[in-house]
Amino acid sequence: MDEITAQELKERLSRSNNMQLIDVREPEEFEICNLGGELIPLGDLPKQSARIRRDIPVVVVCHHGFRSAQAINYLTQRLGFENLLNLKGGIHAWATQVDPGMAVY
User: Fold this and answer.
1) 62 is catalytic
2) Which residues are in the Rhodanese domain (predicted)?
3) How far is CA 32 from the centre of its chain?
């Protein structure tokens, strides 16, 4: 599985917005803190997968990187996605390494 660090994501976002962010946490977690992007809770992936693009890089985000890894495994093995990146350490890594003002939980 391909991963991207919080710092690498920050650099890519500053150079281009030609990527999609998918957050697979629950709505109440997304309300606490998020990177923008689209919220598709992990349990909703099977019926919401059509919202995920195949033509640009897609970064999948969760709290610490475990649920996003599950999402990527599902999407690659079951649906043939080949353009997915897991945010290593999740949004927690972003908050501690890139944006210390972001809420953590």
Assistant:
1) yes
2) 15-103
3) 15
